[in-house]
Amino acid sequence: MTVLPLEHSEKVLHTARKHWFIFVVEAFGIIILGFLPLALFLLPLEIQANLVYFLTSIWMLLLTVALARIWTDYYLDVWFVTNFRVLAIEQRGMFNRKISVFRFDQIQDVTIEIAGLIATLINFGTIRVQTASEDMFVMRGVAKPERLKERIMEEHHRVNVAPH
Questions:
Q1: Beta partners for residue 128, in sequence order
Q2: Average of per-residue pLDDT across 23-47
C-alpha cells in the first residue's frame, strides 16, 4: 500500500474499512465456481484427460485472478480520519485508484444507512459525506459506520468550534 500523504503534524485518528462479510459474500460465488470442474470428472465423458486437466487449470487460474481482484478491492478501499481531514481511497480494479480528500470545515452532512437484518446484526452499512462543494463521498459496506460518523463529526465540531 502507498504511504499516506500526511501533512506536517497530521495524525491518523481512525481507519475505516469494509466489513469482512462484504468480502465473504463477493468471494463465495468464485469459490463455488471453483468446484464446477469436479462435474467433468464425475460425468462419463470420453474426453482426453489431458484436455480436461488443461481446461481445469485455465479455469482455476481465471478464478484466482477474479478472487485476487475482489481481495484487492476489499483491502484497499479505506478511509482515514486524521486531525485535519478525511482521506477516502477507493480501489477501482487492479491498477485504478481514486483518492479523495476533504477537510472537516467543508462537511455539510454525514449520513449512514444500515439496510437489512444481516447488516444490522453484524453492524455494517453505507456512509455518505456531503461537502460544501456539493461533492458526495460514499463508502458502501463499511464496518461500524456509527463509529466512523461519530469520529468525523467530533473532528468537524472541533475544527468549527476552535478559534481561528
A1: 111, 138
A2: 83
Residue 118 grid coordinates: 444481516
CB 120 within 8 A of CB 114: yes
Q: What is the per-residue DSSP string for 37-80?
A: THHHHHS-----HHHHHHHHHHHHHHHHHHHHHHHHHHHH-EEE
Inter-axis angle of helices 20-34 and 49-76, to 10 degrees? Answer: 170
Q: Which three cell numbers stand for residue 71?
A: 481481495
Q: Which residue from 140, 127, 131 is spatially nearest to 85, judged by alpha carbons?
A: 131
- Burial degree of 128 (CB within 10 A; 0-12, 13-18, 19+): middle
What is the DSSP annotation of 70-137? HHHHHHH-EEEEESSEEEEEEE-STT-EEEEEEEGGGEEEEEEE--SHHHHHHTEEEEEEEETTS-EE
User: pLDDT by residue (tens digit) across 89-141?
Assistant: 998 878 888 888 888 888 889 999 999 999 999 999 999 999 887 778 899 99
DSSP annotation of 7 reads P
Q: Position 119: which residue type?
A: A
Q: Are 158 and 21 in contact (CB under 8 A)?
A: no
Q: Which residues pair with 91 in a beta bridge?
A: 97
Q: At which residue does the C-alpha cell 470420453 appear? A: 46
